[in-house]
Description:
The protein is α/β, with parallel strands linked by helices. The protein has helices at 3-13, 22-35, 54-63, 72-80, 97-106, 115-124, 162-172, 190-204, 232-250, 262-265, 298-302, 389-393, 404-410; strands at residues 17-21, 42-47, 66-69, 88-90, 109-112, 130-135, 157-158, 176-180, 212-214, 255-258, 269-280, 285-289, 308-310, 318-324, 332-340, 347-350, 371-376, 379-384.
Amino acid sequence: MTSSQLLKVAEEFGSPVYVYDAEKIATQYNRLTNAFKGVKHLKINYAVKALSNISILKFFNTLGSGIDTVSIQEVNLGIAAGFKPEQIIFTPNGVSLSEIEQAAQLGVQINIDNLSILEQFGTNHPDIPVCIRINPHVMAGGNSNISVGHIDSKFGISIHQIPHLLRIVENTKMTINGIHMHTGSDILDIDVFLYASEILFETAKQFNNLEFIDFGSGFKVPYKKGDIETNIEELGQKLTTRFNDFCKNYGKDLTLAFEPGKFLVSEAGTFLTHVNAVKQTTSTVFAQVDSGFNHLIRPMLYGSHHDINNISNPKGRERFYTVVGYICETDTFGNNRRINEINEGDVLAFKNAGAYCFSMASNYNSRYRPAEVLWYNKKTHLIRKRETFDDIIKNQIEVNFSSKKEKELVK
């Protein structure tokens, strides 16, 4: 989308507001499928947690995608969006057996990463095939909070526990139809990814009834000009060759699966804010916007970078600003950023706001969550209304303190 189109969105729908470009989503999806066109059976399962708006899910359905879910609520959301159960994989962590059984009853693919839960599920439901999430003990990812395949991670069944896993499978007579791993997000070195894949291939050899191997995702997208990103095309070429060789030796054409989230939607999203005030202190010029980490927490939580552009004054001379929000704690989107001169009332556009931005938003400080807009077929479509005060209080229950007894309790 152009700056003028984004300004029209801010004018029509107010701010703050998230805007998603459907064309960019489709481009990323096609880029990934083209990179692995040499694989006979490829399945892309979009990771719902990245951006879960039902219209976004419906759009992925039109592209031919499946979905990766981590909660029973996401499973139900996917079904409401039109996905068939067989298009959904359920990969929870630390949930109850009953939640997994709820998902299984709906007919989705179950993915288990805990030996205790595996044994219980296999004992109760030996006829339901399951996938197993392996922890390859490979450190990958751009931040410790998003590296999930290392030895101290809570995710996955350790490769050192494979003998125990095999005993459970033998004792319960359950069927393992898939092997899965996810090492982390923002993967830079594809050789590390390929190394972890070899561990997955070795593990897969020990199961005779596999239908698919799921390599997770975590592909890095660029966050600023000249930024490094995962070379999907090179990865596709190398992993395709290795996967096809494995299938030949395995004696069966398996499905190669991925579960990308950020890779598909991050660059498609822009977050628009208005500048409330420009405040100069003895050492810093602050641009104070009408939002905060209640709407975009990633810079504060992960130290993530979001390019910030002044789309109201794109040709203004560049100055240095620290862009901050209106939350009552440290709430900094970007320190000492070079941005075209900012005036009060200008619209600032935050890039890479498609993944883990609205989905991690909250009502902290009793602020409303913003609207969401989809740019599709050269038109804007409101896909989520801005919250109101009624949304803040709709589930709250007021206590009547007017009775004599309750007044005594207050004393």
